[in-house]
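Problem 12. The chain below contains 252 residues. Write out its predicted structure in token notation.
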Amino acid sequence: MDGLAKTGIVFENAYTPSPICVPSRMSFITGKFVQNIGVWDNGVPLPEDQPTIAHVLRKQGYNVALSGKVHFRGHDQLHGFEEQLAIDMNAMNYPVPIDWTEETKVPESSRQTMGAGPGENAVILSDNLVTERAIEYLNNNDRKDKPWALMVGLVSPHPPFKVPEEYYRLYPEESVEMPIIPEGHLESLHPANKRHRMGYGFKENDMLPEEVLRKVRATYFGMITYMDAKIGELISTLRKTDQLDNTVIIYF
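Solution.
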């Protein structure tokens, strides 16, 4: 990503239309504010009659493909894209909006940080497949004859935290920088943040033990580097197929 930034333009001041991930993505691909498309929660599907950037590009003659996560909700898993090359592992999670007025029900698996460390899980397996299918798409000779647009949706870095050991070893637990929690910080959190903590099984001022937190942060840093390597594989494929100089790459 640093190499990509050095050869391109970096927008240092950016503002999300929503602090929630699905609404912000739906806003991005439609070019409309969240309140104008009605996607206010992770469980709300984008209306099927809303045009997206994929529709616009197809109208201009582009082959438009998707590999991986956009986190579409509902039955329409393409919204203008011609095909899903891999899998969107998040698409079927939380199919309805959460009723935040209900009492918090904490599942056993909610503390997704507790299993952090080296290894593989659904996130890593999904990102491997997403990258593999994207590379196959870029290597296809059809890319030379017709303009194309490919959206690659990696899940990393995202809980539950696991990363291949070679990336985990890059960040020794004993050397990982720990967060600084100012006195009174947890008590002064916004009610929404407190509610979010409760959803992950934390009570009041409850904190993860230091040894667990070090492992979590080491894994998270490793997942960032792993994701960076996946982006590198895609750029390398563009270079090998002589498409790099004629491709606009947008990372967001």
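Discussion. The helical segments are 2-6, 21-30, 34-37, 53-59, 122-139, 165-168, 191-199, 210-240. Students who got a different answer should revisit the alignment rule from Section 12.3.
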